[in-house]
């Protein structure tokens, strides 16, 4: 064997040795750790799903490394204009503020017809979404990335009618007439709230395409609610006869949930008194076990 061949052979041997050591000392242990983490993740998820299925609520709802804070002006808007926020205890208020801050940070707000988006608009719209998903583990909706705000009702070129609000899954957008959105909160006991209604649609549609624990609980709860109504004709008749829910609720199952949600939030005591089983299903679907609900 000549010298160059010997050198090449020695180099290859050293390289093979280094590669073998790299594989045995680093790649294999890292692979084992990653596989271990994956198995642990799957086991935790299976346990969480099992717990959620048995108890109709997530095992953990609020878990944060560090809570984000609102500035004084933003917090003042919640304290003065959002009745639900004021019903929460101090700890829940901090959690609520964290979620509002995250919603505003992760969502694009777009004003139409020269409307300037104000801090009040951002806080109240974000607070509406956070209120409805406050019992969810995953509270930000994948379906909503953009909030579009018009000064008042607007004309839709798509279906050639005027709208006060809509949810558009294709654009991942939710749209509001600010005038009508505000009116929904100024009169807080008439069971007419544009923000609650449209975010209700967003929650319903988002759950249909998601597999997180809160969406799973929501879907199971809604299925149970509809089965209950199908199996109890007298309850269906009482719903219509009572006129507690406006007739728009009976358009389809999406409008049914959105209208029930408005009543659930604005007049919970009357809802619970008139239709206790439906109230129970709504409370379970949303994991709404705070602020006196």
Describe the protein's architecture and organization.
Keywords: Membrane, Transmembrane, Transmembrane helix. Pfam families: Peptidase_M90. The chain crosses the membrane at residues 26-44. By secondary structure, the chain is an alpha/beta fold. It has 2 domains: 1-55; 72-286, Orthogonal Bundle (Cyclin A, domain 1). 63% of the residues lie in helices and 8% in strands. It contains 12 helices and 6 strands. The chain has helices spanning 3-55, 72-81, 83-87, 90-106, 119-132, 178-186, 194-209, 213-230, 233-242, 253-266, 268-274, 276-286, and strands at 108-111, 146-150, 154-156, 161-163, 165-168, 173-177. A hairpin with a 4-residue loop joins strand 5 and strand 6. The chain starts with a helix and ends in a 7-residue tail after the last helix. The model has no long low-confidence stretch (mean pLDDT 88).
SSE arrangement:
Elements: H1 3-55, H2 72-81, H3 83-87, H4 90-106, E1 108-111, H5 119-132, E2 146-150, E3 154-156, E4 161-163, E5 165-168, E6 173-177, H6 178-186, H7 194-209, H8 213-230, H9 233-242, H10 253-266, H11 268-274, H12 276-286
Parallel strand pairs: 1-2, 2-6
Antiparallel strand pairs: 3-4, 5-6
In a nutshell, what does this entry contain?
With 293 residues, the chain is α/β, with parallel strands linked by helices. It has 12 helices and 6 strands. It has a 4-stranded mixed β-sheet with strand order 1-2-6-5. Strands 3-4 form a two-stranded antiparallel ribbon.
